[in-house]
Amino acid sequence: MKVYSSAFLVFCHAVVFFQMSMEWKYLFLAAALVALSGWFRFYSQPSTFIHHQQVRATPKISFYKLSLQWPPATCHGTLRCKPPIPSDFKIHDIWPQDRYDEPIPPYKKKNPCTRKRPTLRKDLRIKLHTVEAHLTSEWPNLTDGLNMTANYKFWGSEWEKHGTCSDYPDDPLTYFKSALKLRRGIKTIVRFGRQTSWTVNQVADEVFYVLKAYPQIACNLNPSRTQKQLWEIRLCYDRPNPGQTPHILINCTHILRVRKGKIIGPCKSLSDSIFFP
Ligand SMILES: *[C@@H]1O[C@H](CO)[C@@H](O)[C@H](O)[C@H]1NC(C)=O
Ligand SMILES: *[C@@H]1O[C@H](CO)[C@@H](O)[C@H](O)[C@H]1NC(C)=O
Ligand SMILES: *[C@@H]1O[C@H](CO)[C@@H](O)[C@H](O)[C@H]1NC(C)=O
């Protein structure tokens, strides 16, 4: 049945084809060629068809997510920190994300994302030297924020995970400075005071009110695991043109983080109440 209807379709197309003008014939042929090559690519890689994951094997950067953590929540829940604990939002990282809001995976020999050679972690000390003081203040490893070994460990792991397949694989200075620049441009993120409770939705609306873009909110739990806390506010930026760094705020697609269709983290609903420590 399917073969017959396909044959009929080909016949109809042939009839139409002979009635077309010259330009339309070329257009038609070009379209047919594109369709055919698409079909060929699709079926010549059956693995991409069977395993949904492999369709995303070479994800493209769609936008950047600047992740800002609230140190009193990080240090009273996720990490043990040496005092003093800062009381303003500090950078966790800037992540290249694909259009499904999944992180772009890190560079690997087996699956290279760029023809450039990504800067090695061990070279970061030389490359970041000029912004080291700035990074220490805005992007500290909260466990031991004045310890440069600890800081470089943190920057090194974030670089390997998220920088090596960003738009700046061989330019860590630009990658790290892009986050510093965004952070410096934000004076206020939320106007409410500490030791207050809000729903996830209220926090998102507050950020929208202040910055005119919806954030993503991440929660963690206090040490006795009795209270959900506002841990991170993440801001989304359009992928910049070549030669630029992220600067256009866009709405994040998910207020709570979704992975493979499931909300992850302790906050499961926009009406969950969260504490701002
Ligand atoms: C700094 O951190 C490193 C590990 O990241 C640790 O081995 C070292 O003891 C720390 N230095 C001080 C002075 O605490
Ligand atoms: C932060 O510093 C601590 C203490 O030096 C270290 O154990 C930890 O691995 C660092 N964090 C990251 C993410 O590298
Ligand atoms: C973000 O979402 C809000 C509400 O849906 C909408 O009014 C606004 O235009 C959006 N902003 C951007 C930059 O897309």
TrEMBL record:
InterPro entries: RNase_T2-like, RNase_T2-like_sf
Keyword Oxidoreductase found: no
TM segment ranges: 24-43
Keywords: Membrane, Transmembrane, Transmembrane helix
SUPFAM superfamilies xref list: Ribonuclease Rh-like (SSF55895)
Family: Belongs to the RNase T2 family.
Protein name: Ribonuclease 3
